[in-house]
Sequence to fold (291 residues):
Amino acid sequence: MPHHHSGKNLKIAFLLNLGFTILELFGGFYVNSIAIISDAIHDLGDSFSLGTSWYLDKKSKRKADTTYTFGYARFSLLGAVINSLVLIGGSIYVITEAFGRILEPQHADAKGMVIFALIGVAVNGYAAWKLSGGKSMNEKVVSWHLIEDVLGWVAVLIVAIILNFKDIHYLDPALSLLITCYILWNVIKRLKETVFIFLQKIPPNMSVKDIEQKMLTIEFVDSLHHTHIWSLEGENHVFTTHVKLKDIKTFSQLMDVKEKVKQILSKYPFRHYTIETELDDETCDLLHETK
Fold:
């Protein structure tokens, strides 16, 4: 799928999800199903996520400027935080309502639940299919999120079919609790990852020690200090280091070291990297500072 189609696919998924969420909220109250309401709250968070992804897909194409010298990719983290807070707030509401329904059972319209579940499977399934072949990280993440929605609606459909044969009042709120707890678990994990990126934690599956050891095998490299790695938005990373050189006699030797350093860094997903080289008789003012 061509990259320029990513914005169009995200737009389609967003409009489908938002329209269905509005219908779902009204329908959940109409058929008196807390399970459908809980999924509507979840889909509302998805709509924020899809809308943000669609907007940022266009904004991320903007080049770096004097205001944002690393570009605009990091703005996607704001969308992740907003989406997570919306889902957490909605989940707390749903859990409160579900416990109330268990303590004071209410009748749910099972036939209405079946209709909404079928629509939910169809809408989310189509949106997931549209994004399934996407190349961008936004498309891949959103596609998997929508697949989770499809599975959630399948669970609602199964419960609705059971309720058509036997009116077990606690089944609907129990399902909503399971769906909401599963959503909260994933939201908290995602929020935790986002906070770590904001705090500039080293990206997963990456080691400062490993990269430094590879660089130390290069001829003329004596030591490294002030090595830093952080992520812009979880996908593109930044690397900086100071390389202390030894026995450099010619300019070509210096250029050879730089070329070999670049070859090592090219194997990692670094969007930016900065290498400070220091010769034998140079003293770095930052050498004794804490990394």
Notes: The domain at 208-278 is CATH 3.30.70.1350 (Alpha-Beta Plaits). Helices lie at 6-30, 34-59, 76-103, 110-131, 137-165, 171-198, 208-216, 251-265. The radius of gyration is 26 Å.
